[in-house]
Design goal:
348 residues; nine-stranded parallel sheet
Length: 348
């Protein structure tokens, strides 16, 4: 583990506990024992995808900044919390990070852990989804963890895709993605970037002959070109604009979410912090003018978890270099606590 959890200590016993008192290190280098749906944090120190996408780098510092804000958050329940450390760093290539992220998450999900990935640029989405996808494939097909599929990039000079998984044909699963984001991130680029992860996933699922069920909440019309809307149309992407969500209409939104949730059994949630207004999330690569209010996103998250289909979540694009008085890192930490509470509530 690269982060040392420490913080305020007001007294002994669970009634004084904060996150730094409760969370413990999880060693993923060996076969994991049963995790019992416990929450596991995994940091991805990567912003190479942001650089390739001509954005403002700094998101590689995100995992540490989020943990620093989490450390002193008060705990009111005896949650089981693990920290699986970080992957990535300056010396790691983006393509290798995506593969390692896939393998680490797959291992945790096979052990029935619930992963919250701390980014990192939004290029982390590919590894988050693929880790869930392969982990569920192994778990649902009851394949022993010792019989892992070797994951290799097909071609370093093109968009990274993983060789077809031989277990796919054994038991097909239906998966979905809900991305809170001002951008589609469906750029058709020859290499992996922070603007291409969901197109990368679409191409991967096409190889495996699996449906691409993707929805995006918070799209800003000014931030997406016509070709991105056309790509979304061709891929049958469902989406809501940020200006549609300034007021919470629960009945209308529940109907929209139900129509999407009915397509699949397993859901990956991705939260790009630029879905929030720059007044709440200034520390991102591309700050948003409009954004979606936090209370709306919280309600949606609660509705998604009530479906029982959420398997993994990530928080992307925190850039401490441009944060103001830790506003964005505090928001990211708050979202981690929201996801954690919702996960344990759904376990009950």
């Amino acid at each position: 583990m690269t982060f040392k959890w420490q913080g305020r200590q007001d007294g002994e016993g669970k009634f004084h506990h904060r996150w730094h008192n409760q969370i413990v290190e999880l060693d993923t280098s060996n076969n994991l024992s049963e995790l019992g749906n416990a929450v596991v944090l995994l940091g991805v120190e990567s912003d190479e995808g942001v650089r390739r996408n001509k954005g403002r780098v700094g998101a590689a510092k995100g995992p540490k900044a989020i943990r620093q804000q989490l450390a002193n958050v008060a705990l009111h329940d005896c949650y089981t919390l693990y920290d699986a450390g970080d992957i990535g760093g300056d010396a790691a290539s983006l393509e290798k990070i995506q593969i390692e992220q896939t393998e680490r998450i797959s291992q945790i999900i096979q052990a029935h852990g619930f992963v919250i990935v701390l980014g990192g640029g939004h290029e982390i989405a590919f590894g988050s989804f693929m880790g869930m996808y392969y982990g569920l494939m192994h778990r649902l097909n009851e394949i022993p963890r010792t019989k892992q599929v070797s994951l290799e990039i097909q071609d370093q000079s093109t968009l990274p895709l993983i060789n077809k998984n031989p277990i796919i044909s054994q038991n097909m699963i239906k998966v979905g993605i809900l991305n809170f984001d001002a951008h589609f991130d469906l750029r058709q680029q020859p290499i992996a970037t922070s603007g291409s992860p969901f197109f990368q996933i679409a191409k991967q699922l096409d190889i495996d002959n699996v449906d691409f069920n993707y929805a995006c909440i918070g799209i800003n019309e000014n931030s997406n070109t016509a070709i991105l809307f056309e790509t979304a149309r061709q891929l049958d992407v469902s989406y809501l604009f940020d200006n549609e969500l300034q007021v919470l209409d629960k009945k209308w939104l529940a109907k929209w979410l139900d129509d999407f949730l009915n397509r699949f059994e397993h859901l990956y949630i991705s939260i790009d912090l630029d879905v929030f207004s720059y007044t709440q999330a200034p520390g991102v690569s591309a700050p948003a003018v409009c954004g979606v209010p936090l209370y709306v996103i919280e309600w949606i998250l609660g509705y998604l978890f009530s479906s029982g289909k959420v398997r993994i979540a990530d928080i992307a694009e925190l850039n401490p270099n441009f944060d103001i008085d830790n506003h964005t890192s505090k928001l990211a930490a708050y979202l981690v606590t929201v996801l954690t509470k919702l996960k344990y509530k759904s376990n009950a």
